[in-house]
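Researcher: I've got a protein sequence and the SMILES for magnesium ion. Could you write out the 3D structure of the bound complex as structure tokens? I'd like something to compare against our soaking experiments later this week.
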Amino acid sequence: MTRALCFDLDGTLAAYAGDFRSYLALLFHELLLDGCDLSRFAEVVREELSRDGPLTLERALRRALARLEQRAPGDLSEMTRTALHAYAEDVRAAPGAAELLERLRRRSVPMALVSNGPVDMQRAALAALGFGAYFRTVLVSGDPDVGTRKPAARIFSLACTGLEVLPSETVMVGDSVADIEGALAYGMQAVLMGSVEQGARLGVPSVREPGELGALLEQRFGL
Ligand SMILES: [Mg+2]
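Model: Sure. Here is the predicted complex with magnesium ion in place.
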């Protein structure tokens, strides 16, 4: 029997509507870096934002600046707070996401959010979307209490523990290979937010957007 759901955030329930390269370019110009070009800065920041272990935007920027042999400005914390706000303002719910979460809440389906990324960025996005209250547990890889990224089993294990369900009773919904393969390897079921072709390749059902998920959950999983 299927009893619970885990959701990815980026590309599944929501997406950054801005241009992330322009976002990084803005940070680059604010940091007034010396002798460093934008593409190298963007590459290093992207790498730092996908690191394992405890992670915040500020921490990623500090590490990137150290790697680029640049001095971190004294007001980096404040600059980061402004940047977080700007990021969250441009995160948009995917079509049908709010209605889907509301429907599942009415049906008392326990839900977890399982997201890779810096804890402050993901939490700011979740707050801006107003989705936080739908989830019994929120697991962000950058949270020091989580510290592990999908597809690692530990993050899925924390989700099932938080939901008080067995992996086999739980469906992971996500748009990446890490979401699907990680969940399946841990013994969960999975639904891809993506194309039918990719779903078939991964051996799981797929939907294009959250608005289509309700019917599939009902027919296939009885949720
Ligand atoms: Mg995703």
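Model: The CA atoms of residues 210 and 217 lie 11 Å apart. The mean pLDDT is 97.
Researcher: Great, I'll pass this along to the crystallography team.
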